[in-house]
Design a protein that fits this description.
By secondary structure, the protein is mainly beta. Helix content is about 10%, strand content about 30%.
Length: about 500
């Protein structure tokens, strides 16, 4: 997710924390979400999964009491005088998913409401069981889902992506983490986010500095490989791999985090993105366009290897869409000096960086090869909705940088005004916005989608149509638990 997401942390409000101890004020009941595993033979099996809210959104309070460990943008220095003591003194509580966070699930559909009361945005992970994240190994496989983002305007991002997190949320690795995946701990991404309240089972309290009324950053960040399968609103979309030079969730500090030097870190903050509008096809995606965002559609992402096996080297990431029974191939690049690519390959990424004059942090951090190595280890599915305090989402849906000439290749990414995306305005003007992800399927290439015909959709070369068919209450007054929140800086390509 631009960054961080894919950058990645988001712009959410409220008091948030990757808490480590477990509180008893509110029972933690994970919303059920079914999804399917498909086979080459054409059959799909339903899995009984569930989702868990990220720890950074949860109420963090004193163990055995109701005193906030973190309020507004400040730590309680009595409870959190240092990193280790903070983890010992503070408990992470259960979540009221629908009432506090606007998260609802029904069958195979998950809806994330943008603003609910004082809470802004959310981030959830798919669970395999009550205490373990589902791990996806996507090499030579495809991942498919339906999405409805018809009421997601400029400045918002309904994101679905993979993060190289630990399956147990770091429970086994870090003795200070007593909550684990059951409470949404262990987040990391390619932006090495420093807004996380706990990293490696310790409070991120050293040099904590306010960045907004409800969030801040500490000395440490949490890095890992990230694959932004989907970052989008109703105006623009992008898919973007972000490789790192490290394997698995890694705590960083200083230059390792890419701060203040964006390109000095251990991960690629920009990634190699494919945004149809940015790549020269302005008619492909949006309301009334080839992929019509005014209604639900299916997104298919295929991860090809060099030898077409699950043990090969990642060589291509290809995108298809299905809407109203029609399979739509991805758009083709229409940029002077570039070949008419329609997928992400090493050649595409090299050409894009050269033509756009961007720093090639993608190749510098290992490119598709490094991304594929993370896929082989297994990655966690993340779904979120957020607004952007770092760059107002202009990198996704407008001209970015806003001061650059929009006619310069790579600057224009969508039709949103450069004055759009200001979080305070988006939150006040579009609080009822939401994104719904549904019908998640995973399996061999060609097994997860079907269509009665095929459309070029901008001239993509992938036109083969698949014919496979898939078959609590709190003992504490609500005023005690301050609203959770976090600032996601998850963005993609500069």
């Amino acid at each position: 997710m631009f960054p961080t997401a894919a950058l990645t942390s988001f712009a959410f409000l409220a008091v948030a924390v990757r808490g480590q101890q477990v509180g008893t004020s509110t029972a933690e009941n994970h919303p059920a979400l079914s999804w399917q595993t498909c086979t080459t033979g054409g059959s799909c099996t339903t899995n009984s999964g569930s989702v868990v809210l990220d720890a950074n959104w949860r109420w963090l309070h004193s163990v055995g009491g109701y005193t906030n460990c973190y309020t507004g943008n400040e730590w309680d220095t009595t409870l959190c005088p240092d990193a280790v003591t903070c983890a010992e003194n503070c408990a992470l509580d259960g979540a009221d998913y629908s009432g506090t966070y606007g998260i609802t699930a029904s069958g195979d559909a998950l809806t994330l409401q943008f603003v609910t009361g004082s809470n802004v945005g959310s981030r959830v992970y798919l669970l395999a069981d009550s205490s373990t994240y589902e791990m996806f190994q996507v090499l030579n496989k495809e991942f498919t889902f339906d999405v409805d983002l018809s009421n997601l305007p400029c400045g918002l991002n309904g994101a679905l992506y993979f993060s190289e997190m630990d399956a147990d949320g770091g429970l086994a690795k870090y003795s200070g983490n007593k909550a684990g995946a059951a409470y949404g701990t262990g987040y990391c991404d390619s932006q090495c986010p420093r807004d996380l309240k706990f990293i490696n089972g310790e409070g991120n309290v050293v040099n904590w500095t306010s960045t907004s009324a409800n969030s801040g950053t500490g000395s440490y960040g949490s890095c890992c490989n990230e694959m932004d399968v989907w970052e989008a609103n109703s105006i623009s979309s992008a898919y973007t791999p972000h490789p790192c030079s490290v394997s698995g969730q890694t705590r960083c500090t200083g230059d390792q985090c890419g701060s203040p030097d964006r390109y000095a870190g251990i991960c690629d903050p920009d990634g190699c993105d494919f945004n149809s509008y940015r790549m020269g096809d302005t008619t492909f995606y949006g309301p009334g366009k080839t992929v019509d965002t005014s209604s639900k559609f299916t997104v298919v992402t295929q991860f090809y290897t060099n030898d077409n096996t699950t043990t090969g080297t990642l060589s291509e990431i290809r995108r298809l869409y299905v809407q109203n029974g029609v399979v739509i191939s991805n758009s083709k690049v229409n940029i002077p000096g570039m070949t008419a690519y329609d997928s992400i390959t090493s050649d595409y990424c090299d050409a894009q960086k050269t033509i756009f004059g961007n720093t090639d942090s993608f190749d510098n951090q290992g490119g598709l090869t490094a991304m594929g190595e993370a896929f082989a280890q297994g990655v966690v599915l993340v779904m979120s909705v957020w607004d952007d305090y770092a760059a107002e989402m202009l990198w996704l849906d407008s001209d970015y940088p806003a001061t650059a000439d929009a006619s310069t290749p790579g600057v224009a990414r969508g039709t949103c005004a450069t004055t759009s995306g200001v979080p305070s305005q988006v939150e006040s003007q579009s609080p009822g916005s939401s994104v719904t992800f549904s019908n998640i399927k995973f399996g061999p290439i060609g097994s997860t989608y079907t269509g009665t015909s095929s459309s070029s959709g901008g001239g993509g070369s992938t036109t083969t149509t698949s014919t496979v068919k898939s078959s609590s209450s709190s003992s504490t007054p609500s005023s005690t638990a301050t609203a959770p929140g976090a600032t996601q800086t998850h963005y993609g390509q500069w």
